[in-house]
Each structure stands twice: as C-alpha cells, then as structure tokens.
Amino acid sequence: MKRGSGDGLLVLWRGTDAWRAETATIRVGSSGLTARGTQLGVDPLLYRLDYELEAPDNWITRRLVLQAAGNGWSRHLDLRHDGRGTWSAKARSTGNVNLPAPGGAVRPLRGALDCDLGLSPLTNLMPIRRSALERGPGAEDFLMAWVSVPDLSLHAAGQRYEHVRASANGSVVRYVDRGLFPGFKANLQLDRDGIVNRYPQLALRVHAERPFSQQRGG
C-alpha cells in the first residue's frame, strides 16, 4: 500500500462470529489516516452502519461520524476530539426500536486519544501504529472512546496491546480487553501497514484470489 495514495486502499472483512460484512476505503499518510466505510449486520437486528473517520496526525482520532439505520429507525453520532484528550458528542435518533440511546457522557473519556468502533477491525490500527507495536517489542495500555453497534452508545473502555512477533509480511499484536469485556484476548494478524487481516472470533479480511476478468460466471 502506498502511503498518502489519493485513491486509498479498499478493504473488505467478513464476520467470523456472526453474519457481518464491512468495507472501508482507507487513506494512510505519514502519521495518520482517514477512512470511509460501511458495516452490515443482523445482530441484534438488521442494520446498516456508515462511518467517516479522521485521525490524520500522530494516529490520534479527531472525528468519527456514524449513521446507523434499519427498518423504521435510524441513529446518528458525531464524535469529536480536540487532540488533547477532551471529547464532545452530538447524537440523535428516530423511530422506535429496542436499543440503548445513542451517545452518552464524554467526561469518562477524558485522556483518551482513540476511538474504537464496535465490531470493526479498522480502529485497532491507530493505537498500534502510534505505539509502533507492529514493528517491535513492547506493550501499552489505552483508554478508548468505544462506540457500540448498532445503537451508537458511547463508553470508556480500557484496552492493552502487546507486540508478539513481526515478519516481512506483517506482524501479530495481542489485544487484551481491560474494560467492557474483561478476560477477552485475541492475537491480531496484521499486514505490513498494520491493517487487520485476521481478528480471531470477530473478522477475516477478504482478498481477491484472481482478477475479476479471469473469473467465470455460473
């Protein structure tokens, strides 16, 4: 992947724990990224989630805009960060659906530098790259602004990342949950840019095996 590419990199993941799909166009610069993506899921109900992520400087989240919708309902969350640990959030919803309210208190997020979008393999990239854990030994604890899906409610979540190994083709970094799901661990398999190829019990990146022009219809 060419960093700073104007066209970005199109990435596709499929869920491994439930029916789910996510696609994102990611633009990686020298010290950060921007991305637009869509996640489709059926649990706890049928939904579509569209998002825009801005983390252009030192891999620190500056903004995450989310729109979730299903049959007869929608949710919107605009999450912003001043780059120094102070967050703001604006949320709204329409329709009557049995989900928690979107948004929430931002005071517990104070000091966090990263967002974490529920069920998405994308947002693991920022803390890993900022700490260079995809390159060499080390471990670091983080406070995350975690957004649950599809309700878009906001939570403070403790997480830890630990370097396991690196090779010419990528690396493995262990994720350890220290907040909302204590005891959960997963060895994330990453490509050379730190983008998740395999997230055990969550998602697997889909790679084209051959060009479309060489495939035959059934």
What does the model show?
There is one protein chain. This protein is mainly beta and 218 residues long. The protein has one domain. The chain has one helix at residues 125-130, and strands at 9-15, 20-28, 33-41, 47-55, 63-70, 73-81, 87-94, 114-117, 139-147, 154-167, 170-177, 185-190, 196-199, 203-205. Strands 7-6-5-4-3-2-1-14-13-12-11-10-9-8 form a 14-stranded mixed beta sheet. Mean pLDDT is 93; it is low at 1-5 and 210-218.
Structure summarized in a few sentences:
By secondary structure, the chain is an all-beta fold. It contains one helix and 14 strands, in the order E-E-E-E-E-E-E-E-H-E-E-E-E-E-E.
SSE inventory with pairings:
Layout: E1 9-15, E2 20-28, E3 33-41, E4 47-55, E5 63-70, E6 73-81, E7 87-94, E8 114-117, H1 125-130, E9 139-147, E10 154-167, E11 170-177, E12 185-190, E13 196-199, E14 203-205
Parallel strand pairs: 8-9
Antiparallel strand pairs: 1-2, 1-14, 2-3, 3-4, 4-5, 5-6, 6-7, 9-10, 10-11, 11-12, 12-13, 13-14
| Major sheet attributes | 14 strands, mixed
Number of strands: 14
Give the % helix. under 10%
Whole-number tally of structural domains: 1
Class by alpha and beta content? mainly beta
Overall body shape = globular
User: What share of the residues does DSSP label as strand, in percent?
Assistant: over 45%
Which stretches are low in confidence, meaning pLDDT under 50 for 5 or more residues running?
1-5, 210-218
Order of helices and strands: EEEEEEEEHEEEEEE
Number of helices: 1
Using only CA atoms, what is the Rg? 17 Å
Mean pLDDT: 93
Strand arrangement within the widest β-sheet reads: 7-6-5-4-3-2-1-14-13-12-11-10-9-8
